[in-house]
Structures are given as C-alpha cells and as structure tokens.
Design goal:
Order of helices and strands: EHHHHHE
Number of strands: 2
Number of domains: 1
Helix content: over 70%
Number of helices: 5
Shape: rod-shaped
Largest sheet: 2 strands, antiparallel
Length: 228
C-alpha cells in the first residue's frame, strides 16, 4: 500500500471584530453635535468676512487693522473733547470778563479821590477783571480775543465733528470685534480639521501595518497522511 502526503493550507485571520458599545455611539453623537455647532460658527464667521469683503486668509490682519483704526478714532475723539472743553472754558471766562469790564472802564475814567473811592468800593470786581485778563492772555498772547459768540459757533462745529467721529468709532469698534471673532473661529476650525486629518492618517497607517502582518504569518500547514 502506497502512502501519500497531502499538504493543506488554511488561512486563519487575526483581525478582531470591533464591537461598537453604547459609549462609542454616545461619543459619536456628541462629536456630530460639536461638528454641527462648529459649522454654525464657521458659517457665521464666513458671513462676517463677506460683510467686510475679506477672505479667510485676510481675516486676522484685517482684524488687526480694524483695531488700529479704532485706536486712531479714540485719539481723535480725545483731541476733540479736549478742544471743546478749552473752548467752553474760554467762553465762560470771556463772558465773565464782559460782565466786569464796565467797572474797569469806569475806574479808568475817574481821577483823584473819586478814583480811589471807586477802587475801594469795587475792589472785588476790579480784581476779578485783572485776573480774568491775565488768564485770557495765556491763550491769546497777542491780545486779540475772540468773542464768546464766535467760540460758541466753533464749539458747534467741533461737536458735530465729534458726533461724526463717534459714529465712525462705533463702526470701527464693531468691525474690529466681529473680524477678531471670525478669525478665532476660523483658526479653531482649521486646527480641528488638522487634528482629524492627522488622526485619520495614523488610523490608516495602523490598518495597513496590521493587514501586512496578517498576510505574512497566518498560514498554518497541516499534514494528513492517508493510507490506501
């Protein structure tokens, strides 16, 4: 009787079956919810960029420029506010000077004892006239003092300018805040996308390595001897 050897090759897979637990399903639900929220935020950011005619790449630099513009308006508003306050102070002093000027004029017109008596009786008003004159000369050294009415007209012009600057400041402030928010949202979205790409690549590399290992060492050779 002749013996024959039969070689049988059997493939035994090592791949494990991954069971999706309830926890994994919940994590996927949370992740999907986060994705939807991120898409909502990103959509809002894109609407802001469209509003100001800015691309996603320009968002950060545009936000910085808007903040710089906002600072410029603050400086201009402070300058206008200071000029208005000075004009208001000048108006007040000039009006006071106008009230006490008659005492000074009358004092100059008198002579002798009448003048001395007048000075004694109206010393307060005469001193005030002198003090106001010295104060005004600090602003108008050439002695040419504008009228209170002219200064009040200037205040009206400056106030109108301040109102316009205030409107421009509010617009610049809103633009700076919105572009800054849009820039942060886009950067966060891109970081999340980058992390996902990296995780996906690591996962693909892991699957490839596992499949290679399975194919090279998973054959078991069984020998069966059969007799006739």
């Amino acid at each position: 009787m002749e013996r024959k050897s039969i070689i049988v090759m059997v493939y035994v897979p090592r791949a494990k079956i991954k069971v999706i637990t309830r926890k994994a399903e919940e994590n996927k639900f949370i992740r999907d919810a986060i994705d939807r929220e991120n898409m909502k935020l990103t959509s809002k950011a894109l609407n802001i960029l469209t509003k100001y005619g800015v691309t996603a790449d320009e968002a950060k630099s545009a936000a910085v420029s808007a903040f710089s513009e906002r600072v410029k308006f603050v400086q201009e508003l402070n300058s206008l506010a200071k000029e208005i306050r000075e004009c208001e102070e000048k108006v007040e002093l000039i009006k006071k000077l106008r009230e006490v000027r008659p005492y000074h004029e009358e004092f100059k017109a008198l002579e002798g004892r009448k003048k001395e008596k007048y000075k004694k009786d109206h010393s307060g008003s005469l001193q005030e006239y002198y003090d106001l004159t010295q104060e005004i000369l600090k602003w108008y050294t050439n002695g040419h003092t504008p009228t209170a009415e002219n200064l009040e007209k200037k205040i009206e012009v400056l106030t109108a300018q301040r109102s316009q600057k205030n409107a421009e400041y509010r617009a610049a402030d809103q633009k700076a805040r919105e572009l800054s928010e849009a820039s942060r949202e886009i950067e966060e979205f891109l970081r999340q996308e980058q992390r996902r790409d990296q995780q996906k690549k690591r996962k693909e590399i892991g699957i490839t390595l596992n499949n290679t290992a399975h194919c090279t060492g998973d054959f078991v050779i069984l020998l069966r001897l059969a007799q006739e």
